[in-house]
Design goal:
The complex is a heterodimer.
Chain A: E1 6-17, E2 20-31, E3 35-39, H1 46-54, E4 61-66, E5 69-70, E6 78-81, H2 93-105, H3 108-113, H4 115-135, H5 151-163, E7 169-173, H6 181-203, E8 212-215, H7 219-225, E9 228-233, E10 244-250, H8 266-277, H9 291-302
Parallel strand pairs in A: 3-8, 3-9, 6-7, 7-8
Antiparallel strand pairs in A: 1-2, 1-4, 4-5, 9-10
Helix pairs in contact in A: 2-4, 2-5, 4-5
Chain B: H1 5-13, H2 25-53, H3 63-74, E1 77-78, E2 83-84, H4 87-119, H5 121-136, H6 143-150, H7 154-180, H8 183-191, H9 196-234, H10 239-248, H11 252-280
Antiparallel strand pairs in B: 1-2
Helix pairs in contact in B: 3-11, 4-5, 4-7, 4-9, 5-7, 6-7, 7-9, 8-9, 9-10, 9-11, 10-11
The chains are: A alpha/beta, B mainly alpha.
Amino acid sequence: MAANPTALEIRDLSHWFGDFRVLNHINLRIAAGQIVALVGPSGCGKSTLLKAILGTQPPSEGSVLVDGQEILAPSRRVGIVFQHYSLFDFLTAEANVAFGPKLDETSVAFRTFQFPQWRKLRKQHMQEAREFLERVKLAEACGKYPTELSGGMRQRVAIAQALILKPKILLLDEPFGALDEATRERLQMMLLGFYQENLLATKEGRTPEYTIVIVTHELNEAIYVANRVIGLSRFHDDGDQGAMVVYDRPCPIFHPDDPKDLADFVEQREELRRAVFDPSYIKHHSKYVSFWQDLEAAEAAVGPIES
Amino acid sequence: MPVTPFRWFITASGSYAMIRQPIPAWLFWSLAVSGIVVAIAIYAGMSVYQTRINPTQSVIPGLKGFAEGFDLITKPRGNDKNPKPSWLVTDSKVTFSRLFIGMGLGTIAAIVLGIAMGAYTGVEAFFSPIISFMAKIPPTGMLVIYMVAFGTNFKMFIALIGFGIFFTMVQSIYQSVKKDVASDHIDKAYTLGASEFEVVLEVIWKQILPRVIDNIRLHIGPALVFLIAAEMLFASEGFGYTIRQSQRFSNMNVVYIYLGILGTVGLLLDYGLMRFRRWLCPWFGE
């Protein structure tokens, strides 16, 4: 996807909590259509980086640009799905999904003083929300409240809620952490399906719709659902100065219909474990930060790659 | 081991006597009705006993006494030229207008300040100490201040009820905003395009609405206490005034009827608000 425009750019980002430096000179570029897994040991600053991208905690130094515009506060350009769903309890599934268009396209004044027009627009929003719920295979849950849904269903509603506004980048903060294995796999398939839609969009010359950063603790999941894995860690030769990107490499691409064979992941998982999670591996990690070089090399060998 | 009544009851009731075990609906309603029947029976017994000792007693009136009391409070007063409504109509108008206006104003003010304190740390820092302090002062103790400030007219009763519920209600609402509205919800609302005002109106307010309704329910009792106490001391009409006057003239039949009406109105308001909350916020559960 070298041809796709940059969706997210992080420039020289560092962050301190008091005297404690959490993140140290993070530089990243993520192209539209990439599904990126962000992994790292607990406390390495993944959440801090995510909050900087979301705009709820601006970095001490450096900047985050989404679609070329600097992020200074939360906005509709960046969508988020939290581990514990964070659906609005007082709205049904379809109203939760339609909440974004309501807030984005109308004002309180419009909804109050132009009620007939608002009702008409509301019907369109609800219809659109139902279509998004169908896309995440939840058509039957439209009228239910979050408390009436299972964890997996809530998470799919949360994904539909974020996607309906077509954010430039979607952040998934350990989205499947609280789910059982079967549900987790179904949602992983859903992400692979999104990636296939991205490939199709690139082939047709359109900008891919889904650019996703997924934070996960599960290394197999990271390699399975993403086409790029980024490791954040303090276990490097300048670790006292905070976590850096110590791993950034492409991953194999899977199709939702492919059988999932964990043996396919073994080599990269071990490489990832050593580079990101092994406190004894205190070396310069530049050989693992090679996503864009790997991509260029591959393209030079076989022509443009849709990955 | 001898079978004591307690042991027999535990054995006979089986699992129903266990903590938090549900009981069948028929048993629930039978026990509920039994409670009322037992209370009435105890009253009737005491009334009969007292009447035997003193046939002219009016402290624990019987059915005849209640009928006379009911006549007394529902009979129109005045004369043909200058008709006046009955005690019950006059007192109801006065007492319940004081109650509803006082509670309404107190609730609106508490909602506005409670949400502001829960949402903005600066507002919380400014108001929190004074609200915490004021909430500890018994509202009836503040009566003298309201009397000095507003006189003994309508405004004083409104101030007593309004301020009486305001401070504790602000605390509850502000705690609800802090605990029931997760930061993730607020962040998410911003990512969905909400303005600051919309976060307050569409997220915070809707999330705490059932708590606000429950708060109003909880404050009906205290508001009635403040009002009746103030009416007994300062009013020239209203439930509190009539109860006090009736007690002075030993019209305990009127006192009991008025207390019954107050209890019934409080119960109906509470039940009505509970149904309203269930209808408005079905997601909140029971």
